[in-house]
Design a protein that fits this description.
102 residues; alpha+beta; two-stranded antiparallel sheet; 4 strands; binds zinc ion
Length: 102
């Protein structure tokens, strides 16, 4: 049986957006606090697998996501509301200890 625990994440606490390579399991961290122009690699830095096409919808979406996170964090004090992400965290309800793997 699986249950879920919800918690919220302040966008200022986001340290990175990780891109995980499906070919080699390598990863690349993109920090939304990095200043423009943010370089988003078009291929895996570990194995060279092609990930994106320059200017593609996904390439723009990743850039826009990082830009949006940075903008919201920078403008947070000026807002009359607080912005948080609500996240579901699945975990085993059977009491089995997690080994940290999926
Ligand atoms: Zn790779």
């Amino acid at each position: 049986m699986t249950s879920e625990t919800r918690f919220t994440v302040d966008l200022a606490d986001i340290r990175a957006i990780d891109l995980l390579c499906k070919a080699c399991n390598g990863s690349l961290a993109l920090n939304p606090k990095w200043r423009k122009p943010l370089m988003i690699p078009l291929s895996c830095p570990s194995c060279g697998e092609k990930w994106l096409t320059e200017g593609s919808e996904m390439h723009r979406a990743i850039r826009d996501l990082l830009d949006s996170i940075r903008t919201i964090v920078e403008m947070d004090e000026k807002n009359e509301f607080k912005f948080e992400l609500r996240v579901n965290v699945p975990h085993e309800a059977s009491g089995r200890a997690s080994d940290g793997k999926d």
